[in-house]
Amino acid sequence: MNNSDPWGDKKIEFKMPNFKYKGLLLSLIAIVLILLWLASGVFIVKPNEQAIVKRFGKIIKIVGPGPHYHLPYPIETIDKAEVTKVHRIEIGFRSLKNGGYKTIKEESLMLTGDENIVNIDFIVQYKIYDISKYLYNVVDVPKTIKDAAEATIREVAGKENIDEILTTGKNRIQIETQKILQRILDDYQTGVKIVAVQLQDVEPPAPVIKYFKDVASAREDKNRYINEAEAYANEIIPQARAKAASMILEAEAYQKEKIEKAKGDAYRFIETLKSYKSAPEITKKRLYFDTMEKILKRSEKYIFDSDIKNLSPIIGLDGLNQGVKK
C-alpha cells in the first residue's frame, strides 16, 4: 500500500501581503466615510416648516425654510414641525378615505344641563406658534389637545339645555369652548394657538331624534314669522310716519292760509266800517254794486225794453260781449 502524501510532492508557498497598498485603500475608505458623515449634516427645511438645531441635546438655534447645515450626528441633531399649516383634530367621528365618516360614540355622547343626552361631533383647528414649546414641553400635543377639547366641550354642554344646544346656542358653545381650551393649552405651555372650534353634527340620540326635529322645525317657523312681522312693521311704520308728517304739514299750511284770510277779511271789514261811518250812503251803494258785480259775473244777463212792442224785447248781452276784447 502506498502511504505517499495525498498532496503530492507540491510545495506550499506563502506570500506576504503588500501592506503599502492596503494602508492606502483603508485611508481612502476612511476619508470617504468622513466626507459622507460630514455631508449628513446638510438638511432642507420646507416652506411650511421650522427646524430646531440641538447640540448634545441643547437647543442652539431655530431656522426657517431653506437649505441649512448642522454638525453631523451625534454632535448635533434637528427636529422639524409644520408651523404655518392649520392642523385638524376630529372629535366624535373620524373621516374615512372613501369620503364618509365613522362615529365614535364614547367621544360624542354628552350630558346636557337639563339631564338630556346629546350627540356632538366637532373639530378643533390649531397652528403652532412656538416650535420649541410644541416639541419639548408636552410629549404628545395632538392627544393633549384632543383630550382637553373633549373635556372642555363636556363642561360647556353641561351648562346648557338641550334646546339651546340644538338651535341657537351652537355659536356660543363654539366660542366658549375655544376660549377655555386655549387657556388650558397655555397653562400646559404647548405652543399652539386654537384657530377654531367648529361643531359638525349636533343631534339627540337616534330613538328620539324625530321629535326633537319637529320641535326645532316649529321653533324655526316661529322665528321666521317673527322676522317677517318685524320686516313688515319696519316697512309700514316709516310710511305711516311719512304720511302723518305730510298731513301735519298740509294742516299747518291750511291753518296758516285760513288765518291770513281771516286777517285780510277783518282788515277789509274795518276799512269798510270806517268808510261807512264817514259816508254811509256812498258806502251802501258801493257795497251794493260790488255785490251785484260778483253775482252778475257768474250769470247770463238780458235787457228788457218795454218800449218795443212788436219786436223781441229781450237782448242777450253775452253774445255781444263775445266779440268785445276786454
From TrEMBL:
<keyword id="KW-0378">Hydrolase</keyword>
<dbReference type="GO" id="GO:0006508">
    <property type="term" value="P:proteolysis"/>
</dbReference>
<comment type="subunit">
    <text>HflC and HflK may interact to form a multimeric complex.</text>
</comment>
<dbReference type="Pfam" id="PF01145">
    <property type="entry name" value="Band_7"/>
</dbReference>
<dbReference type="InterPro" id="IPR010201">
    <property type="entry name" value="HflK"/>
</dbReference>
<dbReference type="InterPro" id="IPR036013">
    <property type="entry name" value="Band_7/SPFH_dom_sf"/>
</dbReference>
<protein>
    <recommendedName>
        <fullName>Protein HflK</fullName>
    </recommendedName>
</protein>
<keyword id="KW-0472">Membrane</keyword>
<feature type="domain" description="Band 7">
    <location>
        <begin position="40"/>
        <end position="216"/>
    </location>
</feature>
<keyword id="KW-0812">Transmembrane</keyword>
<feature type="transmembrane region" description="Helical">
    <location>
        <begin position="24"/>
        <end position="45"/>
    </location>
</feature>
<comment type="similarity">
    <text>Belongs to the band 7/mec-2 family. HflK subfamily.</text>
</comment>
<keyword id="KW-1133">Transmembrane helix</keyword>
<keyword id="KW-0645">Protease</keyword>
<comment type="function">
    <text>HflC and HflK could encode or regulate a protease.</text>
</comment>
<dbReference type="InterPro" id="IPR001107">
    <property type="entry name" value="Band_7"/>
</dbReference>
<dbReference type="GO" id="GO:0008233">
    <property type="term" value="F:peptidase activity"/>
</dbReference>
<dbReference type="GO" id="GO:0016020">
    <property type="term" value="C:membrane"/>
</dbReference>
<dbReference type="InterPro" id="IPR050710">
    <property type="entry name" value="Band7/mec-2_domain"/>
</dbReference>
